[in-house]
Amino acid sequence: MSNAPVLPNPNHPLLPVARVYTNYFTPTVTGIENLPAAGPALVIGNHSSIYWAPEVWITFMAAMDRRPNEPTFGVAHEILLRAPGLGDSLRDFGVIPASQEAATAGLKDGGAVMVYPGGDWEACRPWTDRGKVDFAGRKGFIRLALKLGVPVIPAVANGGHDSIFIVSRGERTARLLGLDKLVRAKVFPYTVGLPFGVAPILPQIPLPSHVDVSFLPALDWSTQPGDPEDTELVDRIYDRTVGVMQTELDRLRAATPHPVATGLKNHVAALPGPLSGLANLL
Length: 282
Prior knowledge:
The protein is of the alpha/beta class.
């Protein structure tokens, strides 16, 4: 990380592509005023739908719009950042490696840094667990926030995980393939969908599920002093944090219990002329 903050370029070629992509999920963002308009902040989200992850782009662009003159950083697996062409483009867009060192540098630059503690474990959870926040016991974000004294803003998303039918994380396959040692991955997900039917890890076409992202107020523990080496404190904070986010996810799912049907209805309602009236049939 350089000493000068890297601002995502509003003319970056990825931005219009990302906006078209996220529009497919007819997103709604609420509570964005809870994200500080300036200064460092750690944004934590629940992760969904394997590689499609619409909530990541929706949250990232909402943060950019909220903080047009402040740095905003997203984190990504090293596999993506090492990809020829794509890696450099993502870095120019404000994407940094998913590591404590990179996140620390981004926060010290005064940036809003987005992290997804559940990582691939949560993003590859079975479809039947789509209404569950699962950080897999990962607490590094808590120690980081306590160490730096930065506010932690939950960005809770609903709907993205409805778009892909994940049968299994494929933990056993991942172990057999040695993926943990090769690419730090403990999953090799199996999905059902088009065009591949039942398949491992291949990119199925996502359903146009409606995605809600709700930014919550800064968690109280993140605005108070605390010892990042106090294991009992960190454990209590972890349970409270997951509890707060799960409560919000439950609320979002109660408000939109069928995200795919809602997404389809939103798309039909946007059709020109009398065709939009077909939305009332859905």
